Amino acid sequence: MPLTDDVVVRRKDNRRAVALEERLATIEKVAGRMFATRGYNGTSLRDVAAGVGLSPAGLLHYFPDKAALLEAVLDARLGTVAAEFGLETGDGETFVRGLVAVAERDAAQPEDLRLFCLLSAEALDPAHPAHGYFIRWFSQVRAHLQAAFEDLDRRGLYRGWPIPPAQAAVNVSALRDGLNLQWLLSPDQVDFVATIRGSFQPYVDLDL
User: What are the counts of helices (DSSP H) followed by strands (DSSP E) for the chain?
Assistant: First the structure.
């Protein structure tokens, strides 16, 4: 509550909290880069600690173990995509356009895509700490795609029949995942964004 009606109270920043957030962001950035090149299994806490100028014990002050660090990296790199690209509006057209925008971002900054591919492949092992994370991720992607296609169908913008929206969601998400690897391995041979746009054309009446 302000002390008066006409004076803006300026509160001092909590410098310790700001410094902590900056240090956490630095650790997550370095760890993400290492996970994207070496995978989770090929990266040690000692590697990450050295990358940020800490001792292993010092790193454990911020993250209790490597699994906690992985969760933070996934949340920072992947968990923010929905909010950043408007994928939570419930509007089918916005969702589809958002996925194309994500593809454009991935093509320009492929580190997150490489991180996603390496970690999701490792997570096929049920013992991997991200196993459940990626099961939920792919399930949510299919569910959101299906909901987007169903919304477009109600608006007369879905043209995929006789393929129902649920199957179209599987088809589009599967093409995206397969394309990720092909493009990362041979970026000069695959037009990544154009293929993503084209994957929607059989199903939606939108100019993408």
Answer: 10, 0
Tokens 């007369």 map to which residue?
156
Measured CA distances, 4 to 1, 9, 10, 11, 202 (Å): 9, 9, 13, 15, 61
**Secondary structure percentages of the chain, helix, strand, coil, to 5:** 65, 0, 35
> What is the value of pTM for the model shown?
0.85
Q: To the nearest whole number, what is the mean pLDDT of the chain?
A: 91
The per-residue pLDDT for range 15-25, each reduced to its tens digit, is 878 888 899 99
Task: Work out the pLDDT band at 12, boundaries 50, 70, 90.
Answer: low
The per-residue DSSP string of 108-143 comes to: HSTHHHHHHHHHHHHTTSTTSTTHHHHHHHHHHHHH
Q: Residues 21-37, buried b or exposed e (16+ Cβ, 10 A)?
A: eeeeeebbebbbbbbbe
Task: Give the whole-angstrom CA distance, residue 167 versus residue 13.
Answer: 51
For residue 44, the 8-state DSSP code is -
